[in-house]
TrEMBL record:
Residues 1-25 form the signal peptide. This is Uncharacterized membrane protein YqaE (UPF0057 family). It comes from the Bacteria. Residues 59-86 form a coiled coil. The chain crosses the membrane at residues 90-107, 116-139.
Length: 142
């Protein structure tokens, strides 16, 4: 989810880029407020200003920016499928593997598959082997 939020932030940042044409420079009346450091989500005022500046763009440039945003989203999804984008925090998954082993396996795998069912059965029958198996799956040992 963090990656998705950061990608959305990048898309919003694309809309906030300054335009060098004098016609569009006069379209932005008020300054854009700065977000809180460390925050991944833009403030409502930033979103409103970005949308106004995006609507003020010529049609051709709007199409180009939308095309770029779609391309970035497509690349993100391809990276996620290839396993390059690690969304989840390993520490959180390790804690979940100890407390709720099947949930940790499901979050790591992203789907209900054979690893999930093995983890569920081991956890229901014998708690400790379920935890050990879930830790192995979370740390990519299995």
């Amino acid at each position: 989810m963090k990656k998705l939020n950061s990608r959305l932030f990048v898309c919003a940042a694309l809309a906030l880029t300054t335009i060098t044409t004098p016609v569009l420079a006069s379209a932005v009346v008020e300054p854009v407020p700065v977000s809180v450091p460390g925050s991944t989500e833009p403030t409502p005022a930033e979103v409103k200003a970005a949308m106004e500046s995006f609507r003020a763009l010529p049609r051709k440039e709007r199409k180009e920016r939308l095309k770029d945003a779609k391309k970035m989203l497509k690349e993100y999804k391809a990276d996620k499928r290839a396993g390059k984008a690690a969304e989840t925090d390993q520490v959180l998954l390790a804690i979940l593997a100890i407390l709720l082993p099947p949930l940790a396996v499901y979050l790591k795998e992203g789907e209900i598959n054979s690893k999930f069912w093995i983890s569920l059965i081991l956890t229901l029958l014998f708690w400790i082997p379920g935890v050990v198996y879930a830790l192995l799956v979370v740390f990519d040992a299995v």
